[in-house]
Design goal:
Helix 2 crosses helix 3, helix 7 packs antiparallel against helix 8 and helix 11 packs across helix 12. It is globular, with a radius of gyration of 29 Å. With 748 residues, it is an alpha+beta fold. Strand 29 and strand 30 form a beta hairpin. The strands form five sheets. Strands 22, 23, 24, 25, 26, 27, 28, 29, 30, 31, 32, 33, 34 and 35 form a 14-stranded antiparallel sheet that branches. It has a nine-stranded antiparallel sheet with strand order 9-10-11-12-21-18-17-14-15, with no helix packed on it. It has a five-stranded antiparallel sheet with strand order 3-4-5-6-7, with no helix packed on it. Its main location: other. This is Heparinase II/III family protein. InterPro entries: Chondroitin_lyas, Hepar_II_III_C, HepII_N. It comes from Cytobacillus citreus. It is found in: Cell envelope.
Length: 748
């Protein structure tokens, strides 16, 4: 872009974290008292500690601050970044003390900030390794942010010489070393964080120093970064998404506050994509835990992010989250009075409970967010960054605020069994080939998907992640009636003798026929249950009927729980696996287990599931290959031309109540033709007492035919359809590309 940023109206200090008006709006209350307790702790300490749990080390930092001497290299690391956490601890202290001074006007807080400012100004550098400069480290960014925040907050307490010293340090030690990344537009979290510090550092001294080139470069990068986030396949988990974007949001907010430029803060990524990602990957409303794909954790501190989006962009669900979340030091400046009225995810998304994020290869199939809801997250991604894992076509399951089918989360970076388990395929709900996992990061994608309240579907292809170890691995994931899930795995092996192993991980109890399984127990049947503290899930291994199953634990990584291994016993080169997962919102299993039938013939896959408790029978028919041929179920009930279909049959009404066809042109059930088309479509049909609704997805203009009685009225996309003299039978309708809704209303 390189559009020189020259802002004519610059607001006076303070302007980075807050304005004087915002401080006056904070008011008083118990949160202020709690916040000031932390400020007093920072005010009165003579030293502080920085912990490094990954290397079992604690750094003692004496005050007043002096530059650290070189520290011994950590075992198993080269250039271990001690200064990252060290600089973050200093940034945290300077931020809290700056806000405390603004809130109270007490000089003791301002003097402590000044002490830190002058001490950091005397450092010879703000990066850790002299031979690397500002390349590849975060301490330069954290120190620059700390200095910018502190200077902006207490500038009127400084004399002329002190201002000169601090301004020069911000430019010479903070901004100039970051020039190394001027041409680097990589979206890595370190690069993004450094550009954030560049923009905020420049804003802190704009009008006092010549910083236009830093401001322009940082703005260009951050705008491009947000644009790229909408289309880029790269994601390193929600932890690093939150960390990187929190700083970008902080910079966007500072730019808006200082100059009135809202082009960053109001970007579509902040408006919709980011909130959607976090809320669809949220476990449920009560505990507020998140999917831990890649290097991430269940518990994330995203309260600042949510509060700021609620304040600036008026997103009602971010307001809902912020109201329920635990606060941190900076949230004292975020008041619910300045936020839009909270709205829960259930209210806001209005039945759109599931979502696919095709660019990053993630999907969320859920029944809701409240109470006893269930949620399965799936990943088949092309992202191959440093914090990604070998975990494609992997999934996790959350039921009633419990994670029942689990991932290890953040990898252990020290060589050994914990690293093998947390990084490798063995630690994820994926597949091994001859005992080995995926050899390539990423190289996977979600190929197809369809979402509706009754039928969610996606297809993940992880073939290339195995670097030639298999010819194909496609995993179909179905969510039926917001009740249960089906996994359909199609693997084309290189050799018949190749052994596949499917993995199911849990930190909960595993039970078969009422008996708790112990480590190394053989699983004899095809039905097992995972039972947590408040919820459970039953896993049905439908096909193949003969498999070797066992409950195992990885030696040296016992803290991550156990996992079931499922190995097909037959030596088929073309291997099909069918698994159903039924979530239960309580620990009590269903009185009657589901009755199922499955059959895999040469060209099609048949599956029948009796939901006797609901008096429903589900019929599924899948084509093994997407060749648009016509296939018929083994009992002749269901015939389709397409990829796959589902019919939900009501045994009390003795008729189908729901039908679905994916990537097809015709669906017939028990000799009745329900829909035909001249081009491929996806269609969900729901039959009610007085109407039939067709939810149709088209890739091109298409002619369809549906059955319609003489007395029925047809509504197409909200408009009454002209029958053109056709009274009954098959009615022809021409539909445009995109999503279309047809409602046939039965009239007496």
């Amino acid at each position: 872009m390189n559009n020189q940023k020259n802002y004519s109206r610059i607001k006076s200090h303070p302007r980075i974290l807050f304005t004087q008006q915002e401080i006056e709006e904070v008011g008083n209350g118990p949160k202020i008292d709690t916040f000031l307790e932390k400020a007093d702790q920072f005010l009165n300490e003579d030293e502080f500690q920085v912990s490094y749990p990954m290397i079992d080390f604690q750094l003692n930092v004496s005050l007043p601050l002096i530059q650290l001497e070189p520290l011994p290299e950590a075992h198993g690391y080269i250039d271990f970044p001690y200064w990252t956490m060290y600089s973050r601890a200093i940034e945290d202290r300077m931020t809290v003390l700056s806000i405390a001074y603004a809130l109270t006007g007490k000089g003791i807080y301002g003097d402590k900030v000044k002490e830190y400012l002058l001490a950091l100004s005397r450092f010879t550098r703000w990066y850790e390794f002299p031979n690397r400069g500002a390349e590849g480290n975060l301490s330069n960014a954290h120190f620059t942010l700390a200095m910018a925040i502190g200077y902006d907050s207490i500038v009127h307490l400084l004399n002329g010489l002190e201002k000169e010293l601090i301004q020069e340090a911000i430019v010479e030690k903070g901004l100039k070393p970051l020039v190394i990344d001027f041409e680097n537009y990589d979206s890595h979290n370190i690069i993004a964080s450094k550009r954030v510090s560049m923009l905020i550092g420049a804003l802190s001294v704009i009008g006092e120093r010549d910083v236009d080139k830093y401001l322009t470069n940082a703005y260009d990068y951050l705008f491009s970064y947000l644009e790229d986030r909408l289309t880029s396949p790269e994601i390193e988990g929600l932890l690093y998404t939150g960390v990187a974007i929190r700083h970008v949001l902080m910079a966007a907010d500072a730019l808006y506050r200082t100059t009135g430029d809202n082009t960053l803060i109001s970007h579509p990524y902040f408006k919709s994509f980011l909130p959607d990602l976090f809320f669809y990957m949220l476990g449920s409303a009560e505990k507020q835990t998140f999917v831990n794909f890649s290097d991430s954790f269940y518990i994330l501190d995203v309260s600042f992010l949510m509060g700021k989006l609620a304040q600036r962009n008026k997103h009602p669900v971010t307001s809902w989250y912020f109201k329920r979340a635990k606060t941190n030091s900076q949230n004292i400046l975020l008041s619910m009075d300045n936020m839009v009225k909270p709205m829960s995810p259930n209210e806001f998304y209005q039945g759109e409970n599931s979502k696919v994020f095709p660019t990053i290869g993630w999907a969320a199939f859920r029944s809701g967010w409240e109470g006893k809801s269930h949620f399965l997250a799936f990943a088949s991604s092309s992202s191959a960054k440093g914090h990604n894992h070998y975990d494609q076509n992997n999934f996790v399951l959350h039921v009633n605020d419990e994670w029942l089918i689990t991932n290890p989360g953040y990898q252990d970076y020290v060589e050994g069994p914990r690293n093998v388990f947390t990084l490798g395929t063995i630690g994820h709900n994926s597949m091994l080939v001859n005992g080995k996992g995926q050899e390539e990061l990423g190289k996977s994608r979600i190929v197809d998907w369809f979402l509706s309240p009754s039928y969610d579907y996606c297809l993940g292809d992880a073939t290339r992640a195995y670097n030639g170890a298999v010819k194909k691995w496609e995993r179909k994931l179905l969510h039926i009636d917001q009740s249960y899930y089906i996994l359909l795995d199609h693997v084309l092996k290189n050799y018949k003798e190749d052994q596949l192993t499917f993995l199911y991980h849990t930190t909960s109890m595993v039970v078969e026929d009422g008996k708790k399984l112990e480590i190394n127990d053989t699983i004899k049947g095809n039905i097992v249950s995972i039972i947590g503290e408040r919820a459970s899930a039953t896993i049905y291994h439908y096909y193949p009927e003969k498999t070797k199953k066992k409950l195992e634990q990885f030696l040296g990584a016992e803290e991550y729980g156990t996992y079931m291994t499922v190995e097909p016993a037959a030596t088929n080169q073309d291997e099909i696996g069918i698994t159903m997962i039924y979530p239960h919102s309580n620990k009590q299993l269903m009185d009657k287990k589901l009755v199922f039938e499955s059959d895999v013939s040469r060209g099609e896959i048949n599956l029948k599931i009796d939901r006797n408790k609901d008096f429903l029978t589900d019929y599924f028919l899948f084509a093994k290959e997407q060749d648009s041929s016509t296939i018929t179920s083994n009992q002749g009930d269901l015939t389709i031309t397409g990829d796959h279909a589902w019919v939900c049959f009501d045994n009390q009404l003795e008729c189908p109540v729901k039908l679905f066809l994916f990537n097809g042109t015709e669906l017939n059930f028990r000799s009745k033709r329900y829909i035909t088309a001249n081009k491929k479509l996806n269609v969900m049909v729901e039959m009610k007492q007085d109407s039939i609704c067709y939810d149709i997805e088209l890739r091109a203009e298409t002619i369809i035919h549906i059955s319609c009685e003489r007395s029925s009225m047809i509504i197409v996309n909200g408009n009454r359809h002209d029958r053109k003299g056709k009274e009954s039978g098959q009615i022809e309708i021409v539909l445009p590309i995109g999503r279309n809704v047809i409602v046939v209303i039965k009239e007496d």
